[in-house]
C-alpha cells in the first residue's frame, strides 16, 4: 500500500536544520552580500584581545540573567532575558535557539554558550531595513559582534552562509606569510571549528571555536 511512498522520507532526518538555523544562514548570506572589512586572517587574529575583553565583560550580563545563580540559564531565565533585552522572539524561536546553543545538552546555557547565543540573536536581529529599534540593547557588545560577523563573512568566500575547508585554505593563503605550513594550520583550525564534523562550519560553530580559543569555559571555569 504505502510502500512505494516510503523511499522519499529516507532523507528527512539528514539535515537537522531547524527553521531558526535556516534563518541564521539566510541572515548571514544577507550580511555577506555587503562584504567584509577584513583583509586577512591575521586581521582577525589582531582582534582577539578586544574580543576576549568584551566576552569577559559579558559575564556580568550572564550572572544577571542566571537568576538562581546555578551557573546556567534555563529556558525560563532566557525568556526573562529576552524580555529585558527586547528580543521579540516567539516561544518556539526561544526554544529553538536554546536547544541550538545548549551544546552539551544539559538543559542549561552556560557562559560560553550564552555568548554564542547572544551573538546569534544579534545576527538575526540585525536590521535589514530601517526599523529603528530592532537592535539589541547592548551597545558595548555590538562592535565585537560586528567584528565576528565580519570575520565569518571574510572566510565565507562564496557567501553561502557556511565556511568550507577550501574557503578556509583560501583565507589563510591570503594572509601575508603563506607557505607550506599555512595549509596545515588552516586544516587544524577548520577541524577545531567543525564541531559536528560535517565538513562545513556554521556561524554558531565559528563562535564556539572562538570561546574555546579564548579559553572561555562554562560554569566550571573557575573550578579547581
Ligand atoms: Ca539558572
Ligand atoms: Ca561558503
Ligand atoms: Ca559543521
Characterize the structure shown:
The chain has helices at residues 3-6, 19-32, 41-45, 48-65, 75-84, 91-101, 111-125, 139-155, 165-173, 180-193, 203-213; strands at 163-164, 200-201. The protein has 224 residues and is mostly helical. It has a single domain (38-218), classed as EF-hand (Recoverin, domain 1, Orthogonal Bundle), CATH 1.10.238. Strands 1-2 form a two-stranded antiparallel sheet. Helix 6 crosses helix 7 and helix 9 packs across helix 10 (180-193). The longest helix is centred in the N-terminal third of the chain and has 18 residues, at 48-65. Bound molecules: calcium ion (3 copies). InterPro entries: CML21-like (IPR052591), EF-hand-dom_pair (IPR011992), EF_Hand_1_Ca_BS (IPR018247), EF_hand_dom (IPR002048).
Amino acid at each position: 500500500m504505502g510502500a512505494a511512498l516510503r523511499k522519499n522520507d529516507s532523507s528527512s532526518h539528514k539535515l537537522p536544520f531547524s527553521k531558526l538555523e535556516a534563518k541564521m544562514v539566510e541572515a548571514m548570506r544577507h550580511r555577506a552580500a555587503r562584504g567584509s572589512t577584513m583583509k586577512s586572517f591575521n586581521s582577525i587574529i589582531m582582534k582577539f584581545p578586544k574580543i576576549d575583553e568584551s566576552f569577559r565583560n559579558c559575564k556580568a550580563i550572564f550572572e544577571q540573567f542566571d537568576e538562581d545563580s546555578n551557573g546556567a540559564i534555563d529556558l525560563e531565565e532566557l525568556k526573562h532575558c529576552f524580555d529585558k533585552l527586547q528580543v521579540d522572539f516567539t516561544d518556539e524561536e526561544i526554544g529553538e535557539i536554546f536547544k541550538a546553543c545548549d551544546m552539551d545538552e544539559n538543559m542549561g546555557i552556560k557562559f560560553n554558550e550564552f555568548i554564542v547565543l547572544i551573538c546569534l540573536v544579534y545576527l538575526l536581529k540585525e536590521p535589514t531595513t530601517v526599523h529603528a529599534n530592532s537592535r539589541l540593547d547592548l551597545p558595548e557588545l555590538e562592535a565585537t559582534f560586528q567584528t565576528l560577523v565580519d570575520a565569518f563573512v571574510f572566510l565565507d568566500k562564496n557567501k553561502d552562509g557556511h565556511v568550507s575547508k577550501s574557503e578556509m585554505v583560501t583565507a589563510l593563503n591570503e594572509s601575508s606569510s603563506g607557505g607550506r605550513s599555512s595549509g596545515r594550520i588552516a586544516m587544524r583550525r577548520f577541524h577545531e571549528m567543525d564541531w559536528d564534523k560535517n565538513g562545513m562550519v556554521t556561524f554558531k560553530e565559528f563562535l564556539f571555536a572562538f570561546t574555546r580559543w579564548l579559553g572561555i569555559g562554562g560554569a566550571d571555569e573557575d573550578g579547581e
